[in-house]
Amino acid sequence: MKKILILIVFCLSIYESKMLFSQNTNEKNSKIKNVIVMIPDGTSTSILSIARWYQYYLDNSKQSLAFDSLNCGMVKTHSSNVPIGDSAPTSSWYATGVASKSGFVATYPPKDSINDLVYINPKKQFQPLLTVLEAAKLSGKKTGLVFTCEFPHATPADFSAHSYSRGDYDAISKQMVYNNIDVVFGGGEKFIKQDERDYLKNNGWDTIFNDYSRFKSTDNDKVWALFGAKDLPFDIDRNPLKIPSLSEMTAKALSVLSKNNDKGFFMMVEGSKVDWAAHSNDPVGIITEFLAFNKAVETVLKFTNSGSGETVVVILPDHGNSGISLGNKNSNKSYDELTLSQIIDPLLKWKLTAEGFSKKILQNSSDDSIKYYFKKYYTDGEISPSELVSVKNSVLKGKYGICDEVAKIIASKTYIGFTTTGHTGEDVFLAVYNPYKDRPTGIIRGDAVNKYLCKMLGNINLSDSTEKYFQPHNILFKGLKSEVVQEKDDIILKVTNNEKILEIPAYKNIAFLNGKAIKLNSVTVYVDLNNTFYLPESLGNLIK
């Protein structure tokens, strides 16, 4: 009975998608050259209300967020087999059109017969799925990624790499480098290896690491710029003389991608650390980081206004987080008597996020130092004896332990509530700018978001493209001798046919026929769970 219900839901979703995109169809969409996806990671819808009031309190001329007038619907986000999604499969759904399971990056999931919420074809498990960024690149468009986390993290990876394990940074970073993305701005300098740096530099990229001055001045057509060993600091913790804001990185990316470009571009921008602050239940971090994302949206919309109707912008979170609410149990008044100043003033007293405090305390965790940090970065300036003890005890747990403890202190003095430190399963907002008013509306799923992106990119067919660029090697080279071998740091597929020897390294865009290098338009992917390489079908003709 359950299988029948799932099939019915699946068929209805296809019908709804066809109805959705048959409406408002406009020939002017053919003029669209640029598609920008903007994701505030882990942003529950209530954050919009809180941030809007916070912004208004600071400047009452700002009564709206940058995208308020563009809101057009809601998106159901979930994994292939559970209602509450992890970032990897939820962003992957937008990027590929296929729902997947926790930890999977642009990769087809295995079937979970008991729990699947969508139809899953067991024959396709672990197959890499071509993304909208990869398809845009193959069509001749420039591509870009901008984010505040480390570059191999789930959401940037979802658009540019493939793995069943979001934590496999070695495989993911290599794919992101060899996927020839024109612009990559964010964090994670320690994750890019020397040979990957050499590849970028030798193939025309300006590679910038922790150099804000060079970042601002570069006029190269292709740029990788990474700041910080791992993630970027939260916006209010950031040194603006050394590290660019999300808005600055977005503006620079737009400048690079639009220069001398007739075919247009695809870009994904992620406000990565709204999610991280939500995991810590840090209201100051959540609000200020979301407003930093809002500034990036302002930057993008300014770019669209200066253009000639060539850009579509899709703004949506990948999932909710923390169960954040405007109002909690701290009030000694009735909830409907709390004034705006009573709600916002306690938040404005904090000059650092909980993470910012934790980094200071890790430098020196003596009682006097902790008291000093609170006096310097907290307007009320006092930490109670019991709070001091709790912070001291958290030091042994490292940065995240301190961060969580400080966040508890911050939240206890505000009127912002939380129900969990994990993701939540509510629908998320959808906002779309389309100069010709062709927008999805209502409550849709991640696959409908992907269909819209594909439509705006020229009606690309990701399913057919996946089959073209990610063929299992045992099918592609059927009847030929093939083996997977480990050579130094590379996993290599060797295929032999008489005197022809084809060698294909995993996660790169190159193959070798009898030692001669052959450049590929896409990356190769190796999956150890089934000992299979997934490759472009064009390789089959080289050796047969």
Question: Overview of this structure, please?
Answer:
The chain has 544 residues and is α/β, with parallel strands linked by helices. The strands form five sheets. It has a ten-stranded mixed β-sheet, with helices on both faces. It has a five-stranded antiparallel β-sheet with strand order 16-17-18-19-20, with no helix packed on it. Strands 15-22-21 form a three-stranded antiparallel β-sheet. The chain folds into three domains: 2-34 and 42-293 and 307-324 and 420-468, Alkaline Phosphatase, subunit A, CATH 3.40.720.10; 350-412, no CATH class; 470-543, Copper amine oxidase-like, N-terminal domain (Copper Amine Oxidase, Chain A, domain 1). Helix 15 packs antiparallel against helix 16 (398-412). The protein is globular. It contains 20 helices and 22 strands.
| Spatial strand sequence of the major β-sheet | 5-6-4-3-7-1-8-13-2-14
Largest sheet: 10 strands, mixed
Structural class: alpha/beta
CATH topology of the largest domain: Alkaline Phosphatase, subunit A
Total count of helical runs of at least 4 residues:
20
Low-confidence stretches: 1-25
CATH class category of the largest domain: Alpha Beta
Helix content: 25-40%
CATH superfamily grouping of the largest domain: Alkaline Phosphatase, subunit A
Assembly level: single chain
Count of β-strands: 22
Give the overall pLDDT as a whole number: 93
Q: What fraction of the residues are assigned to beta strands by DSSP?
A: 15-25%
Estimate nothing, just give the exact number of structural domains.
3
Q: Note the gap between the termini.
A: 47 Å
What's the architecture of the largest domain in CATH terms? 3-Layer(aba) Sandwich
- Gyration radius (Cα, Å) is 24 Å
